[in-house]
Amino acid sequence: MRRKAKAPAGALLKTSLKSSAIKPAQLRGLFYANSYLCRMTAENLTVRLGLQICKDTAMSKAVTRCKWAEGVSLDYIAYHDKEWGVPVWDDRRQFEFLVLEGAQAGLSWSTILNKRDGYRKLFAEFDPEKVARFTKKRVEKLLLDPSIVRNRLKVESAVTNAKAFLNVQKEFGTFCDYVWQFVDGEPVQNAFEKDSEVPATSPQSDALSKDLKKRGFRFVGSTIIYAHMQATGMVNDHVTGCFRHGTCAAMAKNKG
72-99: b or e for each residue (b if 16 or more CB lie within 10 Å)? Predict the structure, then answer.
């Protein structure tokens, strides 16, 4: 059975208006009322959002922390408060920070934090075995995705480093056993009072950087490696007045 052809939308609208009991003046009234409600809803949401931002800002300033963590974003503060300086004894976590620290070179850490989920998704949850198997075709595909830093050298170095990472695991059992030996197996506990006193490198980062380069790692200069050591708790660089300094120092006693 053939179906009836549908009438044009315009024709249906005209027919509906003609048959409707609502007069043009009433339609205008409904339109203005609806507009008013939409405007009031938007204003209400704006006020509520503003109040939430003020609340979050107040909460972020409720404790004393390293100055570098303030004034960027709540995610930046959360990273400082929950991750930075916590000793990492997990190989995959170590690999994650190697990838992210390498990607940061020349960029801000906030940029990398904003793209962290993209890296996690595209780099196989930071599984070095899977990343080591990435093909040239896979790399080319990654370079088209804006959810990561689309720098060819950085993306290719992540694959190269994954292969070198596996070689270190094969030689030392775990990457953690290898990397922690550069600080004698426990975090270096610094006691800087100001952010300006915190160095960009150290003798330990110089030694680790040099050894990593010999093993084929890329984007592992001493500055990048010192940042990696800070992030993974190999060195406690929270200033003494920061509420996380003592907490991270206590974590050093709980390996694994």
Answer: eeeebbebbbebbbbbbeebebbbbbbb
